[in-house]
Write a structure and sequence with these properties.
By secondary structure, the protein is mainly α. The chain has one domain (2-321): Orthogonal Bundle (ABC transporter involved in vitamin B12 uptake, BtuC), CATH 1.10.3470. The protein contains 13 helices and two strands; from the N terminus they run H-H-H-H-H-H-E-E-H-H-H-H-H-H-H. The protein has helices spanning 2-31, 38-63, 71-88, 93-118, 122-141, 155-158, 167-185, 187-197, 199-204, 209-235, 246-256, 268-287, 292-321; strands at residues 160-161, 165-166. Strands 1-2 form a two-stranded antiparallel sheet. The longest helix is centred in the first third of the chain and has 30 residues, at 2-31. The radius of gyration is 20 Å and the shape is globular.
């Protein structure tokens, strides 16, 4: 694990110095002074909160050698179910949030069980699940947004602590601390790196691989459910189309932050930096009125470059060991 971190930290430093800071300077000094305003910075944190929360769960899955393409669809499904729960209970917000998280966790549990039990590649299982969960959300809501939510449903995304710190930012920090502690100090995290680095060696070492893999997908599903609740809070409606293409942004955040799609590498700090880079790109692009289609091209190109860099590093390491 220490060898992996040694490889990872230089990449993070390179990202911070060569991408994030120049991006901020570009938007602040060269183009739009609105970028540095408190309101815009708060907007960036609110916009990136959903992706960051999901990306921290995705970090565990990717470190363990898996992937989940259904997280965006889980956001849409949990937004619908959580909203319906709030309406059915006469505006009870907290139970609605709890329902969204539980439904997300169940979706993650199903994904993990199908992958480990049926021994089908995660890419195939979660690709199918992406369509199933999206279709289920549309079917339940009949393709319409769930309305009639109480105004208090918007507090989760709109409230500020001490009138300064957005509540979504506090959630990101709290979850980041918990996931970082789990990955660095708990058996859950040590086994995550072991499974991702060499799954057969992990089995021979006595690790119950399937149980931990299911656990990682369940955690990701629960965090996606929380993201669905935040999305509901932002619009005070349950949108069945919420979370579309989020899986791309979530995976990009992990990969840009140094996570390896081959498994065994990634940290919470890197993922947060990756999601901030994505947020700065999106926000700055909007301020400069850059086409969202161009932004998608940039995101795709960045993913390819990050994966290429990771493969280059792995080949260099393998050649050095050989």
């Amino acid at each position: 694990m220490q060898e992996l971190l040694k490889r990872f930290l230089p990449f993070i430093s390179l990202l911070v110095l060569c991408l994030l800071i120049p991006l901020c300077e570009y938007f602040v000094l060269g183009n739009d002074p609105k970028f540095i305003t408190a309101g815009n910075l708060a907007a960036i944190f609110r916009q990136t909160a959903v992706i960051s929360i999901m990306a921290m769960g995705m970090t565990m899955v990717i470190v363990a050698g898996g992937i989940d393409l259904s997280v965006g669809s889980i956001v849409g499904l949990t937004a619908v179910v959580g909203s319906m729960s709030m309406v059915a209970t006469g505006g009870a917000v907290l139970p609605g949030i709890a329902v969204a998280i539980i439904v997300g966790a169940v979706c993650g549990l199903i994904n993990g069980t199908a992958i480990t039990g049926l021994k089908i590649p995660a890419f195939i299982v979660t690709l199918g699940a992406m369509g199933i969960y999206r279709g289920l959300g549309l079917y339940i809501s009949e393709g319409n947004a769930v309305v009639g939510l109480p105004q208090s449903a918007g507090y989760l995304s709109e409230l500020n602590l001490l009138k300064v710190i957005p509540v979504p930012l506090l959630l990101v920090v709290a979850i980041a601390l918990v996931v970082h502690f789990a990955l660095s100090q708990m058996r859950l995290g040590r086994y995550c790196y072991a499974i991702g680095s060499n799954i057969e060696a992990a089995r021979y070492a006595g690790i119950n691989v399937w149980r931990y893999q299911i656990g990682y997908y369940t955690i990701l599903g629960a965090l996606s459910g929380l993201a669905g609740a935040i999305e509901t809070s932002r619009t005070v409606t349950g949108q069945p189309n919420a979370g579309e293409t989020y899986e791309l942004n979530v995976i990009a955040s992990v990969v840009i932050g140094g996570g390896s799609l081959s498994g065994g590498q990634g940290t919470v700090v890197g993922t947060i930096i990756g999601s901030l880079i994505m947020g700065v790109l999106a926000n700055g692009g909007n301020l400069l009125q850059i086409s969202p289609f161009i932004q998608k091209i940039v995101i795709g190109a960045v993913i390819v470059l990050a994966v290429t860099f990771d493969e280059y590093q792995r080949r260099r390491l393998n050649n050095a060991e050989g």
